[in-house]
Amino acid sequence: MSSVPVVRVALPTPLRRLFDYRAGPAGDSTIEPGMRIRVPFGRQRLIGIVMETAAASELPDERLKPVLERLDPRPVLDGATLALLGWAADYYHHPIGEVLAAALPKALRLGAAIDATEERWVLTPEGREAHTRGEPRRAPRQRQLLTALASSEASATSGTDPPGLAGADLNEKLDAWRDAAQALIGRGWLTKLEVKPAAAAQIRGPVAVAPGPEANEEQRLAIEKVCDSLGGFGAFVLHGITGSGKTEVYLRVVERALRHGRSALVLVPEIGLTPQLVSRFRERFAVPMAVLHSALTDHERLLAWRDAFSGRARIVLGTRSAVFAPAQDLGVIVVDEEHDTSFKQHEGGFRYSARDLAVVRAHRAGVPVVLGSATPALETLQNVATGRYTRLALTRRAAEAAPPRLSLIDLRSSAVHAGISTPAVQAIERHLGAGGQVLVFLNRRGYAPTLLCTACGWIAPCRDCDARLTVHLSSSRLRCHHCGADSALPERCPQCGFAVKSVGQGTERIEETLAGLFPGIPSIRLDRDVVRRRGDMEEAMRRMSSGEARILVGTQMVTKGHDFPNVTLVVVLNADQGFFSTDFRAPERLAQTIVQVAGRAGRGERAGEVLIQTEFPDHPLLLSLLAEGYDGFARAALTERSQAAWPPFSRLAAVRDSAKTAEAALAFLTEARSAAEGLRGERGSAAWARAVRLLGPAPAAMAKRAGRHHAQLLVESADRAALHRFIDAWLPALESLPSVRRVRWTLDVDPIELF
Ligand code: ADP
Ligand code: ZN
Ligand code: ZN
Fold it and tell me: Whose CA is nearest to atom 5 of ligand 1?
C-alpha cells in the first residue's frame, strides 16, 4: 500500500482497468478528473484521461510511476460526460480507455490543446519603469523587446484589444527574441499570457431566427409537448410520414432551447446524404454551428469540437460519435431518422448505439430528447407501448399532398422482362406520359450479381468470400461487395473458354433496360458507384428537381431524406430479400425501406403511386403493411417478436469471432459456451445465470469473408440485469480461454445485425 496521492487513469489499451500513477512530487492537486495527462506505460508514453484521484494506491510506493505531464488547464471531459462514458463502458462491457478514445477527436488523443489560445507578451509595471529608465543597458535584445512592447501599449487604441503583443507580432518585429523574453520574465519585467482568441470568448448574443412556416395543429401540439419538457427529461418519438413536417418541429424546439440560452445537439445518420437538413438549420439560425461528420479531416474535426467545447457553437449537428460532443449547457437532443442502423457502431470494438446513448445522455442531463422517424424502430415503438417514451404523431403531409397508394405486383403471374414486370412497365409509361417522374428502387448496385458460363456452369466467385462477384459493366470490372476484391471483367470463361453471361439485375443494368424501353427519356442513377464525392448527390438532386432527368434508379441511398416533389411513381423491384434472411430484423428493415421509398413519391400536389414487385404477395407482414401502413406492420411484427422472445421482448448480446479456419472460429465459441455452462453449473442457484439462454455457436450466414471465417454465439435473456451480470462474470473467462489467441473476437451488446 502506498500512501502518496495518486490519479487513476484510463489509457487507450484493451485492458479493462484503470492505472494508478503518482500525482506529482508533492501531490499535484491541480490534476482533476477529466484532464489528459501523459504517463509512462511500459516503454511507451501514453496520453490518458484521469478518472479519479485518490489519497493512496493499492500498489507499493516503489511501483508507482509519476505523471509526466498534465496537458489540460481544465478537464477536457466534464463530470457528466465522464459519467456517461463510464456508463457506456459498463453497458457495452468495453474497456474504458477505448470508450474514451471513441469520444475524443484524434487530434486530442494525440495531445492537441483543447483551447485555441494565443500567447500574449505583456509588460509588468516594473518592466514599464525599467524601460523608461532605458534599461537593461548591456542587453540590447532585451531592450528592443521592452521598447517594442512599450510602444505597442502607447499606440493601443481601444480598451477591448487583448493586452500586449502576440508571439506572431513579435516574430515580425524582432529576431531571436524568445531568449530575451525568458530573461525579462526572470527579472519580473515581463509576463506571458495565454488568451483565447476574441471569437471564442464571445458570449451568447441574441438568437437571430429566420421566419419559417406557421406550424399546423399537429406540429403545434408536438412542439408544445417537447417544449413543456425543456428543463427536464422526456423521451419523445416524433412519428411522422415523410414530408409531414418533422424537421420543422426540430427547428422550433431547437429555437426554444436557444432562446433559453441552451444549446442543441442534433444527430443524423449520414451528413453526406442529408445536406438538406444541415442547410435548413443554417438558413433558420444565424448562430455558430459545429458540424461533425466522418468526411472531416482530423484538424477540421478538432476545430468543430473546440467550437462546441468553448460554448461558441450553439448547435452541434453530427453523425454517430457526435453523441459525445461537448455541447455546453445542453438544452435538447434531436435524433433524426432514429431507426437508421448507422446509429449503431458496427465496426471495431466499441459497438454502441448513438440513439440509445442519446436517450441516456438526455436522461442524465435532464433534457428532452426527440427521436424522429417515419418508420420508428420496433424497439422504440415498444418503449412507447410501455410508456417509457411519448409518441407525437404527424399524420398529414405539411404541404397537403395526399399520401401515396401502395399495391403489389405478383411476380409469379406477371410477365417479367429483365427484372421489370409488364404492369410496372405500363405504369412507368403512364406516369411519364402524364408528365410525372419515376423512381425505380433496387437494393443492389452494379450491372449483375452473377457472371456465368453457360457451357460449363462456372460462376465467378470471390476467392476470399463465400460470395459471387458482381459485374460492373461500365467500368468493365468484377467486384466483391463484401471484401472489395476487384479484377478485370473476363470475356471468356477461365475454365472452358466459352463466352460468359451476366445473370440477374443491378441498378446499372436496370438503367440500361429502362433506356431501351423508354428511348430518349433521360435517367439518372443513384448508388455508391456514382455518388463518390461531396457534391455528386447535390448534382443528382438538381437534375431531378429541374426535370432534366425523368427516371431515377437507385439503391438505399434514395431513401435518405430527399424530396423528389415531382416523382409520382415508385417501383420497388424486389421486396423479397427481407423474407429470406436469418436475421429476425430483416422484415422490419424491408418495411422501413418500402415506406421510406414510398415517401419519396407525390410530395408535390399530385398523389403518388407505389408498386411493389414480389413473389410472396400473401406474406402476412407485407399484407399488414399494405392494409394498415407502418403502424399495422409494426403491431404484427411485434406480436411475432414477442412469440419468438426476440428483442424488444428479450435482450441480446452476440459474441462474434473470425479466424483463419472455420474450425478455429467455431472452436473458440464452443469453448466460450462451455465456459458459460460452467458458470451456470458452478453458481447454479444464481438466478442471473439461469435467466440466460445460449444460442449457437454457428457459422455466419456468409461464413467466409475477406479470407477469414466468421461465427457467432448469441446470449439472450428476458432480464437485462441478469444478462449484464452474466456477461460480467463470463468475459474474464473468455479472455483467458486457450483458443482466444487464434481468433479475433468482439462482444456486441444489443446487436442489430445478425448473421
Ligand atoms: P419531414 O422532415 O417530416 O420530411 P419537413 O419538415 O421537411 O418534413 O416538411 C416537408 C415540407 O413541408 C418542407 O418543404 C417544409 O418546409 C414544409 N412544411 C413543414 N411544415 C409546414 C407547415 N406547417 N406549413 C407549411 N409548410 C410546411
Ligand atoms: Zn465455362
Ligand atoms: Zn470478397
Answer: 245
Concatenating the DSSP letter of every residue in 394-447 gives: E-S-TT-PPPPEEEEEETTTS-EETTEEHHHHHHHHHHHHTT-EEEEE-S--SS
C-alpha of residue 435 to centroid of ligand 3, in Å: 43
CATH number of 401-448+504-642: 3.40.50.300
Report DSSP state, residue 677: H
Indicate the DSSP class of residue 496.
T
246 in ligand 1 pocket by Cβ < 6 Å?
A: yes
The secondary structure of 607-619, three-state, reads CCEEEEEECCCCC
Distance, in Å, from the CA atom of 395 to the CA atom of 393, rounded to the nearest integer, reads: 6
What is the per-residue pLDDT for 745? 95
Q: Is the CB of 34 under 6 A from ligand 1?
A: no
| pLDDT tens per residue across span 359-370 | 999 999 999 999
In this structure, CATH architecture of domain 651-749? 2-Layer Sandwich (3.30)
DSSP state of 459: B
Ligand 1 lined by 373 (C-beta under 6 Å):
no
CB 267 within 8 A of CB 333: yes
Length of the chain: 755
* CA pair distance 8, 1, nearest whole angstrom: 15
**How far, in Å, is the centroid of ligand 3 from the Cα of 486?**
9
What pLDDT is stored for residue 679 in this prediction?
83
Compute the distance between CA of residue 391 and CA of residue 395 in angstroms, rounded to an integer: 12
Residue 683 has pLDDT above 80, yes or no: no
Please, what is the end-to-end C-alpha distance for the chain in angstroms?
49
Domain ranges (residues) in the chain: 6-109, 118-195, 217-399, 401-448+504-642, 651-749
Q: Given a cut of 50, is residue 255 above it in pLDDT? A: yes
The closest alpha carbon to 75, from 110, 98, 51, 41, belongs to 51
Residue 158: pLDDT band (50, 70, 90) is low
The CATH class of 217-399 is alpha beta
pTM for this one?
0.87
Answer whether 242 contacts ligand 1 (Cβ < 6 A).
yes
Dihedral sign from CA coordinates of 107, 369, 651, 639: negative
DSSP 24: -
CATH tag, 6-109: 3.40.1440.60
| Cα 476 to averaged position of ligand 2 atoms, centre (Å) | 19
3-state secondary structure of 461: strand
Residues 404 and 609: beta-carbon distance below 8 Å: yes
Instruction: Report the residue among 246, 247, 396, 597 best suited for mutation to probe ligand 1: largest number of ligand atoms under 8 A from its CB.
Output: 247
Eight-class DSSP state of 219: H
d(CA 252, CA 466): 50
| 189 closest CA partner among 118, 119, 122 | 122
Instruction: Please state, in angstroms and rounded to a whole number, the distance separating the CA atoms of residues 699 and 684.
Output: 29
For residue 292, what is its C-alpha cell?
A: 461533425
Q: Distance (Å, rounded) from C-alpha 156 to C-alpha 169?
A: 14
- Alpha-carbon span 651 to 418, nearest angstrom: 43
Cα of 700 to ligand 3 centre, how many Å?
Answer: 15
